[in-house]
Amino acid sequence: MGCGERTLLRRFLFGFLIGVVTVPLAGYAYFAFGFAPVATAAPDMPFEKMLAKKALHARLEKEMPKDVPLPWDEANFTAGAQIYIQHCAVCHGLPGQPQTAIARGMYPKPPELFKGKGVTDDPPGATYWRVANGIRLTGMPGFQQSLSQTQMWQVSVLLANAGSLPQNVKNTLAAARIP
Fold first, then answer.
1. Closest CA to 72 of 130, 124, 138
2. How far apart are CA 162 and CA 26, in angstroms?
3. Cα distance between residue 179 and residue 169, in whole Å
4. CA pair distance 77, 21, nearest whole angstrom
5. How far is CA 81 from the centre of its chain?
6. Burial of 156 per CB tally in 10 Å (0-12, 13-18, 19+)
7. Average pLDDT, the chain
C-alpha cells in the first residue's frame, strides 16, 4: 500500500469516526436541548409517523393472535359494545356523536373507529393485540391488566364487524353517552 493510499484510508476512517460520533450526539442534542416537538399541537418529528407505523406493523405481524377463540355472535357483539362504551368511546367516539374534548386534544389523533373503515379491515387479532398491549407514545393504554381475555376479544370482534353489526347492537352504541 502506497503513501497516498494510506492517507486516503486514514481520511476515510477519520471521516467515518466523526460521522459515527456526530450523528448520535446531534440526535441527543435535538432532544436534550428541547428542539424536539413534544406538545400535542406541535408538528411531527422527521420520519416519526413512518417509523412508528413500521415498528407497530412489524410487531403485530410477529405477535398478534391468528385465531379468535370465541364466536362472532350477537351476544359477544353486545358485550363488546358495553366494554367499548365504558373503556374506548371517550377517545375513539361513538357512531353519530362528535369527538370528545379528550380526543380532540390527543396526539396522535385517535382513530374514530365507527367512522369510515375504522378497524374493520384489520384482522381481529391485530385489534386484540392493540387492546391488550396498548401503543406506546399514542395515549392508547394496554388493557391486559384491567380486562379479561374474553372482554378484549369481545371488543375486538365488535370492531372487526363494525360495518355489519346487528341493529340492536348499533342501537346500543348510538344511544350510549360517554361516561
1. 124
2. 46
3. 18
4. 54
5. 20
6. buried
7. 91
Under a CB-based contact definition with an 8 Å cutoff, are residues 84 and 158 in contact? yes
**Cell numbers standing for residue 155:** 371488543
Neighbours of 102 (CB within 10 A): 12
Residues 46-102 pLDDT 10s: 888 888 889 999 999 999 999 999 999 999 999 999 999 999 999 999 998 999 999
Write down the domain spans for the chain. 1-36, 52-175
Task: Using CB atoms within 10 Å of the CB of residue 158, give its burial: 0 to 12 exposed, 13 to 18 middle, 19+ buried.
Answer: buried
Q: Which three-class secondary structure state does DSSP give residue 135?
A: strand
When computed from its CA atoms, the radius of gyration of the chain, rounded to whole angstroms, is 23
Q: What is each CA distance from 84 to 5, 32, 33, 40, in whole angstroms? A: 68, 39, 40, 25
Three-class SS state of 95: coil
Model pTM? 0.82
Q: Which helix (H) or strand (E) is 103 found in, with range?
A: helix 101-104
Spatial separation of the C-alpha atoms in residues 124 and 129, rounded to whole Å: 9
* Domain at 52-175: CATH architecture: Orthogonal Bundle (1.10)
Q: How far apart are CA 149 and CA 155, in angstroms?
A: 10
